[in-house]
Amino acid sequence: MRTSIFLLLLYLMWPSCLLGAKTFLIYNASSKQCLQAEDSALVMAECDDKSIMQKFRWISTQQLVNVGTSQCLSVSSMAQWSAVVLHTCDLDSDLQKWECKNETLFGIHKGHLYMTYTDNKIALYSPKGAWSQWQIHLTMDNLCADPYEEIYTLSGNSNGQPCKFPFKYGSKIYVDCTTAGKTDALAWCSTTSDYDKDQLYGLCPSRCKCYTELPTQHKLLLGVHNKSVETI
Q1: Which has the closest alpha carbon to 66: 33, 25, 108, 98?
Q2: How far apart are CA 215 and CA 113, in angstroms?
Q3: What's the predicted TM-score (pTM) here?
Q4: Is the dihedral of CA 103, 109, 112, 115 positive or negative?
Q5: Backbone phi, psi, residue 3, to 5°
Q6: 93 contacts 49 by C-beta, under 8 angstroms
Q7: How do the pLDDT tens digits run along the chain, 232 residues long?
Q8: Rounded to whole angstroms, how far apart are CA atoms 148 and 131?
Q9: Is the peptide bond between 166 and the residue preceding it cis, with omega within 30 degrees of 0?
Q10: Taking the CB of residue 216, how many other CB atoms lie within 10 A of it?
């Protein structure tokens, strides 16, 4: 059963690559639990550092992505009690821009509303208390302690410019390096937010670990077959 779940998660992430950026669990001081993704919703659950649905990482200086869903932490509006959810990452959306307010408060960028867990809801709220205190699990650090680090590209046609996340390629939004569209299995990224429009890209450093590189037996179990794709 565990093997099946593991393989399914690998398949869902195919053909993306992990950037090597630090991932972490988001711990709430009041509930003593961690933030967990359930599709596009967020719930609190017992902390489990093996759960990909509890892992988050920064993909820009202000956007936080859930590793398991590849969706960004977002709010439905800037109003008090607006639900904190997961949504397709959008570089230009103010509803996905966050910042650390002090040692434990975490709120919407340039606002006075904070991510809060109360009454079994995760929402924006202005009063401050233990329910609004968020830390990286197993540390005393706030959520900005492991900030986004730019990934500078190699080769390509962007003269070493850094990756721009999220970026659009085809009909999909990517939050990390990918091998999509490549036949040589080399991970790449767009250096603008819209590859289809600008056609600017570079290869990612070798520290990117691609999930396309699955063991043969995993590929057979998943039904992954080699397909000819357009070469970038």
Answers
A1: 25
A2: 46
A3: 0.81
A4: negative
A5: -60, -40
A6: no
A7: 443 343 333 333 434 454 456 899 999 999 999 999 999 999 999 999 999 999 999 999 999 999 999 999 999 999 999 999 999 999 999 999 999 988 899 999 988 999 999 889 999 999 888 899 999 999 999 999 989 999 999 999 999 999 999 999 998 999 999 999 999 989 999 999 999 999 999 999 975 444 333 333 333 222 333 332 345 6
A8: 26
A9: yes
A10: 8
CB 188 within 8 A of CB 178: yes
Q: What would the 3-class secondary structure string for 108-154 be?
A: ECCCCCEEEEECCEEEEECCCCHHHCEEECCCCCCCCCCCCCCCECE
Provide the 3-class DSSP secondary structure of residue 100.
Answer: strand
CA neighbours within 13 Å on the CB side: how many for 105? 15
Name the token pair of 183. Answer: 């036949």
* CA 39 – CA 28 distance, rounded (Å): 20
Return the structure tokens found at 170.
């085809």
CB contact at 8 A, 99 and 113: no
Amino acid at 216: T
Beta-carbon count within 10 A of 205 CB: 15
